[in-house]
Amino acid sequence: MSDITSRPAPLSGLRILELGHFIAAPFCTRVLADLGAEVIKVEPPGRGDPVRAWGQTPEGQSTSVWWSVHGRNKKSVSINLKDPAGIDLVRRLVGEVDAVVENFKPGQLAKWGLGPDDIAAANSDAVLVQISGFGQTGPGRDRAAFGLIGEAVGGIRHLTGYPPAVTDLPPVRTGISIGDSIAGLYGAIGLLAAIFEKRVARAGEDLPNRRVDVALTDSVLSLMEGCLPEYGYFGSVRQPHGSSLPTTAPSNAYPSRDRKWFLIGANSDSLFARLCRAMDRVALTDDPRFIDNQARVRNAEALDQEISAWTFTKTIDELEAAMKEVDVPSSRIYTVADIAADPQFRARGMIQDVADPRLGKVLHPGAVPDMGGDAGATVRWTGPEVGAHTDEILEGLLGMTATDIDRLRGAGTI
User: Fold this and answer.
1) Which Gene3D superfamilies match (predicted)?
2) Nearest alpha carbon to residue 364 among 70, 16, 19
3) Strands (E) located in 188-314
4) How far apart are CA 321 and CA 79, in angstroms?
């Protein structure tokens, strides 16, 4: 058997230039960097990517703890994109990479001389991934957007709440910029698909530059399960249902005696029978209201009352033990403290104590997916300082001398 630790990382040898800021494009490239791709992130000199200042920042520091994760495994090069000399540097870098990932407003990079045609001229083989709010085409392409706008237009925000009969508060957000992250994942998939296409092209086949166009709105819409076909066929508009599911029951959050929420998904006949056994309410399985899933869905409110009456007599620990014994899908709702202490996450390397040269020990989520062995997806280094790799890249990749670099730094280009 071969030694898996001697193998290179899955994307070793793939070089990507990131012209991104905030979340979507940087998340896309972080996923690829975790898998071994060499990611060169271009940042403005001085302050760098604005997301460096997002989230909690340690006293005496100017960069947040989040950046340790968000910028990990990347090389930071500081270049002023408003300086013609800086644009020339970026064009030269484009000539040395396999792909470019950007998430500026459509047309912005073209104004700076780094549009799709400019990138194609600099490197006829480079894949271009463009992530934006509404995409590169269509009447809405120029609309400003962040992740929350993509979530609203894509439809998920309408469903993340309770029915109007329960509350008149607005639908809640997920607590993270999920629209940006979903678009970033689609960007990574599109980039790898384009690279694969090029590498399996028939001999002599001249493929044009592949442009991967990812919209936040499209990305969210693609997750909406049966909402669109149900509307097209029945004219029905799916509505928010709080923590329950409209298609299966029981599947909800139930209160424990110690005032915590416990999720139970006993939505098949066999699972429901096991739940009833744990509740010492076996007779419920013969109740016509709960005889099968369709009946349980019609009578979900009554069923939830039955289950809640039982869960409210138990602590969260007692509920977990009871459901584990009968093997019913269930869980308390984890906080990040629960996540950090979870033995399953720890065993799979999803909670990692990473040494950050700026901050000391920082908890990082592990790299996903698990590719097997130490040569898979991993954390190689933490988010670097702005421009930490400028000299390395300009010297090693573009062949510039120390004198050239000093001149550009003195002019404010880097």
Assistant:
1) Crotonobetainyl-coa:carnitine coa-transferase, domain 1, formyl-coa transferase, domain 3
2) 70
3) 211-215, 251-255, 261-265
4) 56
Cα 276 to Cα 179: distance, rounded to the nearest angstrom:
38
- Rounded-to-integer distance, Cα 131 and Cα 150, Å: 12
Cis amide linkage into residue 343, ω under 30° from 0: no
Say which of 49, 98, 180, 304 is annotated catalytic.
180
Query: What is the Cα–Cα distance from 41 to 28, expressed in whole angstroms?
Result: 12
Instruction: Supply the DSSP symbol for 208.
Output: P
Using alpha carbons only, give the angle 95, 100, 104 rounded to the nearest 5 degrees.
130
CB < 8 Å & 24+ apart, contacts of 108-115: 109/19, 112/81, 112/82, 112/87, 113/84, 113/87, 114/19, 114/81, 114/87, 114/90
Q: What are residue 366's phi and psi, to 5 degrees? A: -65, 170
Segment (H or E) for 272: helix 269-278
* Distance in angstroms (rounded) separating the CA atoms of residues 89 and 81: 9
Q: How many CB atoms lie within 10 A of CB 89?
A: 24
- Distance from C-alpha of 67 to C-alpha of 61, rounded to nearest angstrom: 12
118 a catalytic residue: no
Q: Note the maximum CA span of the chain.
A: 84
Element (H, E) at 80: none
The helix (H) or strand (E) run that includes residue 78 is strand 74-78
| CA dihedral over 226, 228, 233, 236, signed as positive or negative | positive
Show pLDDT as tens, one digit a residue, over the chain (414 residues): 334 456 789 999 999 999 999 999 999 999 999 999 999 999 999 999 999 999 999 999 999 999 999 999 999 999 999 999 999 999 999 999 999 999 999 999 999 999 999 999 999 999 999 999 999 999 999 999 999 999 999 999 999 999 999 999 999 999 999 999 999 999 999 999 999 998 888 666 777 789 999 999 999 999 999 999 999 999 999 999 999 988 999 999 999 999 999 999 999 999 999 999 999 999 999 999 999 999 999 999 999 999 999 999 999 999 999 999 999 999 999 999 999 999 999 999 999 999 999 999 999 999 999 888 666 678 999 999 999 999 999 999 999 999 999 999 999 999
Domains of the chain plus CATH, in order, are: 4-222+347-410 (3.40.50.10540), 251-255+261-332 (3.30.1540.10)
Alpha helices in 169-215 (DSSP H): 178-199
Strand 99-102 versus strand 127-132 pairing type: parallel
Tokens of 204: 């002599």
The residue assigned the tokens 């780094």 is 114
